[in-house]
Design brief:
462 residues; alpha/beta; FAD/NAD(P)-binding domain; Enolase-like, domain 1; 3 domains; seven-stranded mixed sheet; five-stranded parallel sheet; binds flavin-adenine dinucleotide; binds 1,4-dihydronicotinamide adenine dinucleotide
Length: 462
């Protein structure tokens, strides 16, 4: 039996970051992982492989649509799916091996196998029981199921199956116009599939700024994705190579069927707690099946903590990472902190979509007076030159104090641009602070400055 200060269950962005931080703070630490490789959902079947396919398919799209106009002539590339899968696999491998290297460097023990907590202070992996002064559960999440839809990961797939289809399908039906559906739907649409997205609500990407939702859906339609909105999927029927998707339109209850080669079910994810043995510990759960924690990520069981997708909050890798660092600091007797008001969200389609902080809806609901500064990428020289003028930056600031409360961007490099606004928000900056900061020309970031100017006396280039 080995003894540790901390044992973490799960090596995703929450778990591995927590392990490294614990080690940096002088704690003896081990991380339990049941997969063959470290890195969790994110590195193995989530963020990283999806971004590799988004990148490759975006390159193809650029070659097909914009090269000729820039004077780049010649045959546009064709898709070698096997090679694209190999590129994706090597990207995963580089990243997962990177975590293995970091574990060795920081003297984090990887306990290989599935872990459970037979009693507080003990973690069982295989036949071995290890002692731990503190246990951190970072077991992540899995795709939620949909009644009437049986996933076989060949024809009816979750994101995991969608990342490794045998070939690019002729037709794909995506159930759910959320982040996964639109990212992976974009990939296959660019690679040549006819993609139809079936969404229960009347708008895409729930919770996002309505103006961004509308602009985003218009752009995706222009790229070839079809949308069936306000549609409740009833069931799917599948053979080894084909599927039918039965849905009912909510407005008139009419019933319809779509024939397709592949169905991607992307209707959300749920916490993964199987096999941990937490039922025997009487751990308090939320009514959504998450492990309930307090402000210091402590569960109801003494010295057992939980972080990442398995607790409440946005299911995002960087949120899990921040909690991993913070809980390590709490365990080490420091003051770990996560500012949940400033967690950016990014959709890595083309263009990218990014947001942080409040939306107009949340501000209205709270009865707060705010002003809006908006700037279109059409007024940004760099964006125009790069065929990226569609989209905008929108900054929401307090009407009285001018303090930045939130931002919504759809356009080129939105996922990077959002971070200057995050930093500004962390420092309690006003829109004017951002507007007075010199931004290099010509960069996309000038659109952020112009939106900040629009919160005051007005933008220059619009
Ligand atoms: P996970 O990454 O899920 O890791 C949990 C790990 O714990 C797993 O490896 C699992 O095997 C292991 N485990 C579970 N139980 C046990 C046990 N009993 N014993 C041992 N090991 C166990 N987020 C972003 O921020 N950006 C993105 O671009 C993005 N893209 C995504 C794309 C897809 C297709 C998907 C599915 C998700 C994406 N996400 C993205 C979400 C992101 O992957 C998750 O929010 C993140 O991985 C959560 O981290 P985590 O550490 O909580 O859990
Ligand atoms: P999601 O919650 O983003 O979207 C699910 C969508 O499915 C919603 O629009 C919902 O209205 C719709 N829906 C639900 N039931 C339906 C039904 N019966 N019929 C039709 N539509 C239905 O969930 P998604 O896309 O599965 O992603 C899961 C999680 O993974 C998200 O929380 C997200 O944070 C994370 N993720 C993050 C990424 C990123 O940061 N870029 C990329 C991919 C995933």
């Amino acid at each position: 039996m080995s003894s540790y200060d901390v044992i973490i269950i799960g090596s995703g962005p929450g778990g591995y970051v927590c392990a490294i931080r614990c080690a940096q703070l002088g704690l003896k630490v081990a991380c339990v992982e049941g997969r063959e490789t470290l890195g969790g959902t994110c590195l193995n079947v989530g963020c990283i492989p999806s971004k590799a396919l988004l990148h490759a398919s975006h390159m193809l799209h650029e070659a097909e649509h914009n090269f000729a106009e820039m004077g780049l002539k010649g045959k546009s590339p064709s898709v070698d799916w096997k090679q694209m899968q190999a590129y994706k696999a090597s990207t995963i491998e580089t990243n997962t091996k990177g975590i293995e290297f970091l574990f060795k460097k920081n003297k984090v023990d990887w306990l290989k196998g599935w872990g459970s907590i037979p009693e507080p202070g003990k973690v069982k992996v295989g036949d071995e029981v290890h002692e731990a002064k503190h246990i951190v559960i970072a077991s992540g999440s899995e795709a939620a199921s949909l009644p009437g839809v049986e996933v076989d990961e060949q024809v009816v797939v979750t994101s995991t199956g969608a990342l490794e289809l045998g070939k690019v399908p002729k037709k794909m039906v995506v159930i759910g116009a959320g982040v996964i559906g639109l990212e992976l739907g974009s990939v296959y649409s660019r690679l040549g599939s006819e993609v139809t997205v079936v969404e229960f609500l009347d708008h895409i990407t729930p919770g996002m700024d309505p103006e961004v939702q509308k602009t985003f859906q218009r752009m995706l339609k222009k790229q070839g994705l079809e949308f069936i909105m306000g549609a409740a999927v009833q069931k799917t029927e599948s053979t080894k190579t084909k599927a039918k998707v039965h849905y009912k339109l909510r407005k008139d209850e009419s019933e319809h069927v779509l024939d397709t080669d592949v169905v991607l079910v992307a209707t959300g994810r749920k916490p993964y707690v199987e096999g941990l043995g937490i039922d025997k510990l009487d751990m308090v759960m939320t009514d959504r099946g998450q492990i309930q924690v307090n402000d210091h990520w402590a569960t109801s069981v003494k010295d057992v903590y939980a972080i990442g997708d398995v607790i409440e909050g946005p299911m995002l890798a960087h949120k899990a990472e921040d909690e991993g660092m913070a809980v390590a600091e709490v365990i080490a007797g420091q003051h770990g902190h996560v500012n949940y008001g400033v967690i950016p969200g990014v959709i890595y389609t083309h263009p990218e979509v990014a947001n942080v902080g409040e939306t107009e809806a949340t501000l209205k609901e709270a009865g707060r007076a705010y002003k809006v500064g908006k700037f279109s990428f059409m007024g940004n020289a760099r964006a125009k030159a790069n065929f990226a003028g569609d989209g905008f930056v929108k900054i929401l600031a307090d009407k009285e104090t001018d303090r930045i409360l939130g931002a919504h961007i759809i356009g080129p490099a939105a996922g990077d641009l959002i971070h200057e606004i995050c930093v500004a928000m962390e420092f309690g900056a006003s829109a004017q602070d951002l507007a007075m900061t010199c931004h290099a020309h010509p960069t996309y970031s000038e659109a952020v400055r112009e939106a900040a100017l629009a919160c005051g006396d007005g933008p220059i280039h619009m």
